[in-house]
Design goal:
Length: 389
């Protein structure tokens, strides 16, 4: 083999490997994006997740272009080279920013709902884009030596801090919210960010040492896949109308609590009075609104008192409470007070008043199964409903 042929083989063999890994990652990301786009979920949270996936795919394509350019496989005009560099490093910042936006919407913290919050959140992204535009003009971000090899400049540390800063803030926020007592029952939702952050951070650090292997691309793809699977799991466990936990998640949660609880365990069964009348008189759309209003007040109670709430089916809801701060009667009064407050707030704006019947059961050694536990609460609910007639 000639010297030229050996030189070309030396250049292209690692490059082909690099391309193969990136193409495989693009395939995985593309499948995830298609699945996400096929979902009927139109919430802003899901839309932001799809935008983040698209940004990551764009970053992967630009990474290949950038790698081809710095290895000399592509001989590009200076203007094109500058544009590729700027687009690649900007795309990384955009991907990180969109992940931050996704977690803000997922957690319901709504930092970006205010003008001040949006401006503060955009500052690192603007700085990242400015650094990216500078990448082809000065030696601040990268230095090109006499042989044409690229080396990280002094500005690369600042760039990395800004890009990973979005992930770090989202991660810290998620851990903080997960440890809050009122979020205990839904802590999985807040810890989902760790499934994205850890692979990206680990592979990003390894990428510095092994430049010829697209480890960061693999880490981001793995992170996106894990985040998607976690999002799907959260979706599966939720009731699509009310956003509360569904019956399947309730039974799973109750099974764990019955096996391992440190304080009295209460099951509160809630039924909407005269719900058929609301449907018949005002229509099923209004009936759905009534269920969503009830779900809203129950979710607020769950957050305030560390309860697990679920829609059991139809017009029935369940609260699970572990603790000694309230007994079963106190829990029932709490629900009734909440619905009265809701009626007072909607006075004059809603043609009907919401009414709930509530019954409860407390877990003891004589209860041998989940159906038996639910049946005891249901019997008390029946007594309460009979007394309200």
């Amino acid at each position: 083999m000639t010297r030229v042929g050996m030189s070309m083989k030396h250049i292209y063999s690692p490059m082909i490997f690099y391309l193969e890994i990136n193409l495989f990652c693009l395939l995985i990301l593309g499948i995830i994006l298609m699945k996400a786009c096929a979902s009927l979920d139109k919430r802003q949270t899901w839309s932001l997740f799809k935008q983040m996936l698209a940004a990551v795919m764009g970053t992967t394509v630009l990474d290949v272009c950038w790698r081809l350019e710095i290895t000399g496989c592509w001989q590009l005009p200076q203007v094109v080279r500058t544009c590729v560099n700027a687009a690649y490093f900007s795309a990384i910042g955009v991907s990180a920013y969109l992940w931050f936006c996704y977690t803000d919407s997922l957690f319901g913290t709504r930092i970006l709902n205010s003008r001040k919050g949006r401006v503060i959140a955009l500052i690192p992204l603007v700085l990242l884009c400015l650094l990216s535009l500078d990448s082809g003009q000065t030696d601040f971000l990268f230095v090109v030596d006499a042989t044409g090899r690229h080396h990280r400049g002094v500005g690369y540390v600042l760039y990395t801090v800004l890009a990973y800063g979005y992930l770090a803030v989202a991660s810290v926020k998620g851990v903080y919210l997960a440890t809050r007592k009122e979020h205990y029952a839904e802590r999985q939702k807040y810890l989902v960010v760790e499934s994205f952050t850890l692979p990206v951070v680990i592979t990003g650090i390894a990428q510095v040492r092994f430049e010829q292997i697209p480890l960061l691309c693999v880490g981001v793809t793995l992170a996106a896949l894990m985040a998607y699977l976690n999002a799907q799991e959260l979706q599966i466990s939720k009731d699509p109308l009310t956003g509360m936990n569904n019956r399947g998640h309730l039974l799973q949660y109750l099974s764990k609590k019955m096996k391992n609880h440190q304080a009295p365990l209460y099951l509160v069964m809630i039924d909407v009075d005269h719900f058929k009348g609301i449907n018949d008189q005002y229509g099923h759309v209004e009936g759905d609104r009534a269920l969503m209003r009830i779900a809203g007040l129950l979710k607020r109670l769950c957050g305030e008192h560390n309860c697990f709430g679920a829609r059991y089916g139809g017009d029935e809801f369940v609260l699970i409470y572990e603790g000694s701060a309230m007994d079963g009667s106190g829990l029932c009064r709490m629900v009734q007070q909440a619905v009265e407050a809701e009626n007072a707030q909607m006075e004059g704006r809603c043609p009907y008043r919401l009414s709930l019947s509530v019954g409860y059961a407390v877990y003891h050694n004589g209860i041998t199964s989940i159906p038996e536990f639910i049946e005891q609460a249901d019997q008390q609910l029946y007594v309460a409903k009979k007394n309200r007639k």
